[in-house]
Amino acid sequence: MPPRARGGAVLVLLSLSLAIAADELQCACDMPYCPTPTCTGKVCFVSKRREAGRVTQHKGCFSEHLLENCKPYVMEHFGVRCCNASMCNAELEIYLRGEEALGQSPSLSNLLLLIFVPLLTLLILVALTILFLWKLAQHRRKRLLLFKHSDLGDTDLMLKASMVGDSTLEDLLNDDCTTGSGSGLPFLVQRTVARQITLVECVGKGRYGEVWRGVWQGENVAVKIFSSRDEQSWFRETEIYNTVLLRHDNILGFIASDMTSRNSSTQLWLITHYHEKGSLYDYLQRTTLDVETCLGLAASIICGLVHLHVEIFGTQGKPAIAHRDLKSRNILVKSNRQCCIADLGLAVMHSQGSDYLDIGHNPRVGTKRYMAPEVLSEQIRTDCFESYKKTDIWAYGLVLWEITRRTAVNGIVEEYRPPFFDAVPSDPSFEDMKKVVCIEQRTPTVPNRLFSDPVLRALPGLMKECWYQSPAARLTALRIKKSLQKLQQNLHQPKEEHSDVSVL
């Protein structure tokens, strides 16, 4: 073969090898399921866990190309870093929060501060100490105000954990076994539980992945298996559940989170309490409600939303949280016909003390059908936490409308329909919703029969106050909760004692 031909063949082979390399990477691998020191995948990763004071680090590869969503994910007890070059994870290091990078050389700026300007360092430390003491005093003051204020003295704002049933899970989730962060289980137990679960049946599918009913030591649990494209939602829910105290009757109970290997691929699991009645969306399809059930469902949802929205101060406190994707599919119905809010993959957190708004890094957006006008018009103040809370209130009004449609009054009830079913297609686009909600400023039609019931006649006004175009004019979750509690009290009074005065 002539030299020029041989050179051309070499270039072709080199191009092919580069194309293959661009698609498949060789990665260092020391995970338990790796038969060799290397593995082949689309993205290399390094993960680290801290369990019972012991730190373990593993290396491996993802079978799907997740790099665009694989930002450095580091918490106090768990962390993941990724890279996209062959064997790039061989020397890749990851440090958990609070963990010092041993062996790192001090930076030049630190050396200058330590050697040449000790006085400046001392002044900075004194200033930081004063600032810390001032913020601590502010926290204590706000905490006293929180529990003295008549509007925030509700018992469901207290942090007593609520268990479900007499079970092995209850024993694990008691106060003696928590991490103190609200996860309910230490990380070692979380991983142990995840690897002992048997998946029984798929009970739901969506863009997020799948939900399975699983069995752990004879008890049902729900296993949400995230798709690769929704990996950031798993990261976000895991982060929130493991750093925030979220135990509440009306928030879906968290059990464990784990990155596990099944069928030669990495799966992201979120394990929660199982509720056989399913989502509120499914429940309303097949169930006609009476007035008492209607108010019970509505009140329990708003109780969960109040718990999310309020910031609780103190060592056992929590930041304020806005859900951002509240809808009937993300609300589960418990066996006692109370509801609990699920899916915190889009949640936003805010702490008044640090004035830090944590919006996460999830590229996913909320459900278009439930988007508030300011979201559809892209005029929402993304730097203001109150803006996100007001979008939850808009969505809650739509969920309340879904519930009232399925409530029988004088023997009359309507079939289930989603909000704006008569105005937009079954899978509306962003522009479809913007036209109806922002330009035409339409809201769902409230059933007329509600006005003939002495208790339910207050609900149309409540919904109206959730649907103002101006976010500032909408009710707060706490105000809605108190209104619904008053309606529930009126329900058990003799009819002649019902007040016609608005509960708002």
Q: How would you describe this protein?
A:
By secondary structure, the chain is an alpha+beta fold. It folds into 4 domains: 21-99, CD59, CATH 2.10.60.10; 115-148; 168-273, Phosphorylase Kinase, domain 1 (2-Layer Sandwich), CATH 3.30.200.20; 280-497, Transferase(Phosphotransferase) domain 1 (Transferase(Phosphotransferase), domain 1, Orthogonal Bundle), CATH 1.10.510. Helices cover 34% and strands 18% of the residues. The chain contains 13 helices and 16 strands. A 5-stranded antiparallel beta sheet has the order 7-8-9-11-10. Strands 4-3-6-5 form a 4-stranded antiparallel beta sheet, with no helix packed on it. Strand 13 (331-333) and strand 14 form a beta hairpin. Helix 8 (291-309) packs antiparallel against helix 10 and helix 8 (291-309) packs antiparallel against helix 13 (477-491).
Tell me how many strands there are: 16
Q: Give the class-level CATH name of the largest domain.
A: Mainly Alpha
Task: Specify the CATH architecture of the largest domain.
Answer: Orthogonal Bundle
- How many domains is the backbone divided into? 4
In helices, the fraction of residues equals 25-40%
Strand residue percentage: 15-25%
Spell out the helices and strands N to C: HEEEEEEHHHHEEEHEEHHEEEEEHHHHH
Q: Low-confidence parts, pLDDT < 50 over ≥5 residues?
A: 9-21, 141-167, 172-183
User: Whole-number average pLDDT?
Assistant: 80
According to CATH, the fold-level topology of the largest domain is Transferase(Phosphotransferase), domain 1
Structural classification: alpha+beta
Question: What's the alpha carbon Rg, rounded to whole Å?
Answer: 27 Å
How many H/I helical runs? Answer: 13
CATH superfamily of the largest domain: Transferase(Phosphotransferase) domain 1
Tell the overall outline.
globular
The largest sheet is: 5 strands, antiparallel
Strand order of the largest sheet: 7-8-9-11-10
Intertermini distance: 91 Å
